[in-house]
Design a protein that fits this description.
The complex is a heterodimer of chains A (about 90) and B (about 575). By secondary structure, chain A is of the alpha+beta class. Chain A has a single domain, classed as Histidine-containing Protein, Chain: A (2-Layer Sandwich), CATH 3.30.1340.10. Chain A has four helices and four strands; from the N terminus they run βαββαβαα. The N and C termini of chain A lie far apart (about 30 Å). In chain B, α10 links the parallel β5 and β6. In chain B, α14 runs parallel beside α16. Chain B has three domains: about 130 residues, Glucose Oxidase, domain 1; about 120 residues, Orthogonal Bundle (Enzyme I, Chain A, domain 2), CATH 1.10.274.10; about 260 residues, TIM Barrel (Alpha-Beta Barrel), CATH 3.20.20. In chain B, the strands form two sheets. Chain B has an eight-stranded mixed β-sheet. An eight-stranded parallel β-barrel of chain B has the order 9-10-11-12-13-14-15-16, surrounded by five helices. Chain B has about 575 residues and is of the alpha/beta class. At the A-B interface, α1 and α2 of A face α3, α4 and α5 of B.
Chain lengths: ~90, ~575
């Protein structure tokens, strides 16, 4: 078990809206980890699309991503790549 | 309890009293139902089952979309599936059932509403738009949690309710038609809002534009709604109640007298005949139209066939609906308006892109020309129905001759294929044009050469002529039907139509106001179509006037410079000419 916490910034110019939020949940579901995402004081389950949408994270919002579980390392690497991409690159 | 008087905009006349029923979200009317502790497990199971059914439904929809349009389009629904599986949603709903003892549908809608609320407050417009997705999923799941017939309906109302809402959507009309509602009270809207149209067709008073009525009135408050003066009296004192009871019996007495006019023609003392017809939303209103002596239906709105459902109405279903109305109206004429979606009217079965300015965007005939598949189905149904009764048809929102020709080209395709299939229809059915856009007025001379008749749609014509969004209550005072520009638009349309020998009618809320109807008569309209409940008053006015006086006063009024001057002048003249109106 390991727990990793990192500050990531939303690089997608359109923000974390439904499409990328959906893609993120699909990505997170592939790993045996729990994911928490925090924006300021607000913390949501990273595997909850509603939670992600309710964060209202726009372009360049800093987020704290906390990953906990056996595959934490691998998951965090994918999440870092995810948040650095534009929407068009994510869909590909 | 203290009496409280709220002042708003009078939208439908009459006086009624009733118990307040607050409709806090017109999309989902889900009554709160408290369960006992031992029911909690079965309610959670019911919720899980509804989620599972919805998931299967979306999967099969995805399969169909993939076949029809390709996988990219089907992927849009992936977000819907993720919401269904959302751990946060399931946790919150389960807690609402087990902890707060709410029934599954209420626990679910409460959570969904909180999402919609949060999403709609988000600054970012991409994110804010997702509220429609969440609403869509909510509806799909609710369908499995509730009996669909109860879903939108207000049967669990007390029989003497006054509905208090932020706003009423056109789809609410259908659900409210067969219930006994005494009055409507809304926060927003103007004289031509849907609330006004619904209330008039139900024959109940409505006061709109009260801004914060939903906050100041509580469920169960006793209300008197005065639709003549635009007042809502909350928890009236006994003297106020007595005062209104007296007022009401006076109104009833004069209504009974108007009934004598039913069988008489709308004709001035010196013999000028005008036809007074009814605007209809639903076939069940025909009874009302007959009761008030309508000489036909000048506007039959077809949007209602498309509302409150997740799929599109089939050709057969539409054919049956049009046939039924035509036969009920026969031998009088029935004017069917083709689909008028967009603007402020939306349906669940077709995604219309949300335009920045919906009234200037893809709506009415523009939508139909973009979706010939949907348009053709309706045209086939109307043509097939045309052998029953006396049907004529008109296109909404025509902005120039090009659109009329494109619509007619599609109509001709449909006619050809019906002939090929040996299906009979009325080859002579009249095809009219609604004049509701200033560009149509300016080119009315050209349109008149290719149109079977004109029908002026004033609700939109006023909005486009004066650049006043008719649903924006902040500028409601600028929405002036008697504005000289509007009157000139109408005059020009009538003259263009008469030059080519076609009939010119008018359907819009304007026709039901005696002062404005006076002007319309003076401008030379052949037909006025209005809410059934206004017909007798207008007929009484027509029968009390000499056409020569009407023309003279109208000519005077056309020389005045503001809408207010026009209304004041005509109103004073009308009081003088028909003192007992």
């Amino acid at each position: 078990m390991s727990r990793i916490e990192k500050q990531l910034i939303v690089a997608n110019k359109k923000g974390l809206h439904a499409r990328p939020a959906a893609l993120f949940v699909q990505l997170a579901d592939k790993f045996d980890v729990s994911v928490t995402i925090a924006k300021g004081e607000e913390r949501v389950n990273g595997k909850s699309i509603m939670g992600l949408l309710m964060l209202g994270a726009q372009y360049q919002t800093p987020l704290t991503v906390i990953v906990d579980g056996n595959e934490a390392q691998a998951a965090m690497a994918e999440f870092e790549a995810f948040f650095s991409k534009q929407e068009e690159e994510l869909i590909k | 309890m203290n009496e409280l008087v709220l002042k708003g905009v009078p939208a439908a006349g009459g006086i009624a009293s009733g118990e307040a029923f607050i409709l806090d979200n017109q999309e989902f009317i889900v009554p709160q139902r408290i369960i006992s502790a031992h029911e909690a497990d079965s309610e959670v199971a019911r919720f899980e089952e509804a989620i599972e059914q919805t998931r299967r439904e979306i999967r099969s929809l995805q399969k169909k979309i993939t076949q029809d349009m390709g996988i990219q389009h089907a992927q849009i629904l992936d977000a819907h599936l993720l919401v269904l599986d959302d751990p946060m949603l399931r946790e919150q709903v389960t807690r609402g059932i087990q902890h707060d003892k709410n029934a599954a549908e209420y626990a679910f809608i409460k959570v969904m509403k909180s999402y919609v609320k949060t999403l709609s407050q988000i600054q970012d417009e991409y994110l804010r738009e997702r509220t429609s997705d969440v609403n869509d999923i909510a509806k799909r799941v609710l369908k499995h949690l509730m009996d669909e017939s109860k879903w939108h309906d207000l049967d669990n109302l007390h029989s003497d309710s006054a509905v208090v809402a932020h706003d009423l959507s056109p789809s609410d009309a259908v659900s409210m038609f067969n219930t006994r509602i005494m009055a409507f009270v809304t926060d927003i809207g103007g004289r031509t809002s849907h609330t006004a149209i619904i209330a008039k067709s139900l024959g109940v008073p409505a006061v709109v534009g009260l801004k914060d009525a939903t906050l100041r009135i509580t469920n169960g408050d006793h209300l008197i709604v005065d639709g003549n003066k635009g007042l809502v009296i909350v928890n009236p004192t006994v003297p106020t109640q007595e005062l209104y009871a007296k007022e009401q019996s006076k109104i009833n007495a004069s209504l009974a007298k108007l009934g004598d006019l039913k069988e008489l023609p709308a004709q001035t003392i010196d013999g000028k005949r005008v036809f007074i017809l009814a605007n209809l939303e639903l076939s069940s209103e025909i009874k009302n139209a007959r009761k008030f002596g309508a000489e036909g239906v000048g506007l039959y709105r077809t949007e209602f066939l498309y509302m409150n459902r997740l799929d599109l109405p089939s050709e057969e279903e539409q054919y049956q609906a049009y046939k039924q109305v035509a036969e009920a109206v026969a031998p009088l004429p029935l004017t069917i308006r083709t689909l008028d979606l967009g603007g402020d009217k939306f349906i669940s079965s077709v995604q219309i892109p949300k335009d920045m300015s919906p009234f200037l965007g893809v709506r009415a005939i523009r939508f139909c020309l973009e979706r010939p598949d949907i348009f053709k189905t309706q045209l086939r149904a109307i043509l097939r129905a045309s052998v029953h009764g006396r049907i004529q048809m008109m296109y909404p929102m025509i902005s120039g001759i090009g659109e009329l020709r494109r619509a007619n080209a599609i109509l001709n395709d449909v006619r050809r294929s019906l002939r090929d299939e040996h299906i009979v229809f009325d080859e002579q059915m009249k095809i009219g044009v609604m004049i509701e856009v200033p560009s149509a007025v300016m080119t009315a001379d050209m349109l008149a050469k290719e149109a079977g008749f004109f029908s002026i749609g004033t609700n939109d014509l006023i909005q486009y002529t004066l650049a006043v969004d008719r649903v924006n209550e902040k500028i409601a005072h600028l929405y002036e039907p008697a504005h000289p520009a509007v009157l000139r638009m109408i005059q020009r349309t009538i003259d263009a139509g008469h030059n080519e020998g076609i009939h010119v009618g008018l359907c819009g809320e304007m026709a039901s106001d005696p002062v404005l109807a006076f002007l319309l008569l003076g401008l030379g309209l052949d037909e006025l179509s209005m809410s059934p409940s206004s017909i007798l008053t207008v007929k009484k006015m027509v029968r009390g006037l000499r056409f020569s006086d009407v023309v003279r006063v109208t000519q005077e009024a056309m020389g005045l410079s503001t809408g207010q001057e026009v209304e004041e002048y005509v109103s004073a003249q009308l009081r003088r000419l028909v003192p007992n109106l």
